[in-house]
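Supplementary Text 2. Reproducibility record for the structural model of the 135-residue chain.

All settings were left at their defaults, and a single model was retained for analysis rather than an ensemble. We include the record here because the model underlies the residue-level annotations in Supplementary Table 4.
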Amino acid sequence: MPPKLLTDVCLQCGMTREWHLEHNPGHAFDLADPTERSSMGARSDGLGQPLDDVQRYFVQDARQRVGNCMSWWCDKGAGYTCNLAEAGEFSGEACRAMRGTDVPWPVEYVRLHTVVHVRGDASAFSRHRYRPGPR
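Retained model, structure tokens:
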């Protein structure tokens, strides 16, 4: 029986089908029914590795993004955040019980690929506030 197409977002990495076709055609686009994935017990992380009960994971909500920022589960599942300092760290066991659209990523991997930047739309950085020279 072929997998059911419930979303155009890959359940492993959160990227769209179009992105896969253009940038990573070798990645197996995961279209399995999320309810079937949860009931299977054995799930993989965003890198395709089996979940490890000792490993810690940040969990991406692959259903949405905020601009170009990924959305992460907060600690104890208390909402979502784009700020990793506010994101929860979960065990492999906890990740197995989550929805199929929730993608666990190893904490070390996410931190290695994290970029810190200052938002240019913040009013503190508008040119009319800048005063050169000593204060």
